[in-house]
Amino acid sequence: MAITVKLDDLLHARRMTLTELSEKVDITLANLSILKTGKAKAIRFSTLEAICAALECQPGELLGYEREP
Amino acid sequence: MNSPSPIPLAASRFLASAGRIICTVVAILLLIIAATLAVAWPAVIAEAVEKGMELKVADIQPWASLALLGAAVMLAMGARMFQRLGWILNSVSQGDPFTVDNSRRLRHIGWLMIGIQIVGMVTGWIGTRLPPNHNITVDFDLSLSGLFAAFLAFVVAQLFEQARAMREELDGTV
């Protein structure tokens, strides 16, 4: 998909594990894992808001767009 | 989310199983009677004539057997309908009703309903060939409610397909 999720980078920069984020944002580890591996087809605004609040970042830092060849 | 009460579901499953068994048993019985009549009609007619009935072989056969055969085919179709309904109800109790299989089953039920109407019309016509006043009446007309039920089954099949697509989309939503 042309939209990439940079959750891994953000977590690395914040020295946070996926499990810790899952506890903070109250989203299951399975769903966060789907998001991290880029398998998600859509993201709710509420999820985006919770992740941005927990990681203290902007949505733009979490998502990226790469033109497909 | 409101989960459906298990009692009506269990009752529906029981009714579907009962309907299927009753239809199958009656269909088999009718087939046996039709076959017996087809093979043994000279003896049957002879006995009837002995009892003072004015009967002619040509009046009764092959129409009586054919009418019974038609009824048996209708019941067999009914049994298949109940079987598919039971499968759908099983998938509901397993918590996953919106599948490709279920929309196919619903469409199958719709076609069976139309089939029953068509076979019923043919059987009704066969019934008109039987002589009157012999305590045999075969009466079946094209039923509008039957056709409407078939139409409804097709519509619900479409709804299931749509629901499946929507659920698939939601499955990937985080």
From TrEMBL, chain A:
Residues 7-62 form the HTH cro/C1-type domain. SUPFAM superfamilies: lambda repressor-like DNA-binding domains. Pfam families: HTH_26 (PF13443). GO terms for molecular function: DNA binding. It comes from the Bacteria. InterPro entries: Cro/C1-type_HTH (IPR001387), Lambda_DNA-bd_dom_sf (IPR010982). PANTHER family: DNA-BINDING PROTEIN, DNA-BINDING PROTEIN-RELATED. This is Helix-turn-helix transcriptional regulator. It comes from Sandaracinobacter neustonicus.
TrEMBL record, chain B:
InterPro entries: DUF2975. Signal peptide: none annotated. It comes from the Bacteria. The chain crosses the membrane at residues 21-43, 63-82, 109-128, 140-160. Pfam families: DUF2975. Keywords: Membrane, Transmembrane, Transmembrane helix. This is DUF2975 domain-containing protein.
